[in-house]
Amino acid sequence: MLFNSFEFLIFFPIVFVAYWLLSNSLQKQNILLLICSYVFYAWWDWHFLSLIIISSFIDFIAGLQIYKSHTSQLRKMWLLVSLIANLGMLSVFKYYNFFVTSFTDLVQVFGWKPNDLTLNIILPVGISFYTFQTLSYTIDIYRKELQPTKNIVSFFTYIAFFPQLVAGPIERASNLLPQIEQPRKFRKTWFNEGVIQILVGLFRKIVIADTIGAYVDLVYGDIELYNSMSIILATFLYAFQIYYDFSGYSDIAIGTAKLLGFKFHQNFNIPYFSKSLTEFWRKWHMSLSYWLRDYLYISLGGNRKGIVITYRNLLITMLLGGLWHGSSWNFIIWGAIHGVVLSIEKLLKSKGFWGNLKGLSFLGYPITFIVVLLSWVFFRSQDLHSASLAIKKIFQFSLELPYVGDVNVMATSIFVLAIGIAFDLYLFNKKIDLEVLGAKFVPVKIAVIATVIITLINLFYSSSSNFIYFQF
Fold first, then answer.
1. Given 265, 285, 325, 385, which residue is catalytic?
2. Which residues cross the membrane (predicted)?
3. Fewer CB in 10 Å around end: N or C, the chain?
4. Domain map (residue ranges) of the chain
């Protein structure tokens, strides 16, 4: 079920009313949330619901056993059960065909032509997100940073909670599980904040991302047909398409959770206003950034074992972060670009380079954006050949005019993008978090804002298009 669909428009109000009618019984509320979350996911394909249930059951048992085990060997064994089960399912469904195809291509260089070993596998929506979420639970218990829950309904609800089930934010058990197990009260302030954030999220997705995405899809659909300036323009627009698409999803997820009495962590904080790539990753997909830092980078040794090992850990973390996004060499190269630039930034910082350029620190904004922009070419391209061709054409930098197509459509795209950027600039300059913006408005203002946004959404809405991060 999509947030931007007619089905969800019917689904959520029913859940909201039924949920708060059960406010006197925490267990009944959680059972309702669990059932509704499974309905929400099964609406896409009920067959894959079994994977979430199996993963939840394994980690519920593993968490209890890790906590009860008195020897390090038993604790490690149960952690391995969790890791192998979850990463095994993720590997089969997401990476099997990629590794098999890569192996086949490699051995063919040496003249061996093996049989086709690929399988007709459908990638379950959200598997990357809920796998990381459930793994954080068992790892935190293993590290003695969290006590397991004994309430299976609470744990299953934590894994399947529908606002963030499909595309995050990736919530840690230390934040979300206590909220599930404690009584929740309806808060007027949270309701106001949630409504505004949901509307902003829908605006970002439907009005901005889907509108400018039409041009991006056209150009990246066949790179060979378009000149340098067309690809540069499409890449520029894609940077904002993926930002407004994914941040829009996060806004709706966070706002929806607030209406039900839950507080998620912020997932985006105007990332394109960053002076360095390090700062960018503190603002972009923050729940994934912190997950990779806490469970991968630090586990590898972080920056505690010398500068060379630190660079190695950064590269490994970003390579695997790229692979997490998709089973393609494009994503691995995307991760490698970020890993190399992050390492260079760390090296320059250790040499005091940035300290000598205080008067020119403003250059960090365009430099960071250009690096991110070039890396998006690999992220968006259909395959490695298309990405290579796009990069080649970009650096040819011909001064031919870009393909525009329908002038009215292009003008509309630029107009709605300008609105989005202007709004982000307002939040950036005023140092306002979108998560609390709704608390600043009285009901009359909220009604006016809601009317304007809903009107714009209806004007631009054509059909329910998937969010980009559904494919990951």
1. 325
2. 6-22, 50-67, 79-97, 117-139, 151-170, 225-244, 331-348, 360-379, 409-429, 441-461
3. N
4. 6-184, 189-471
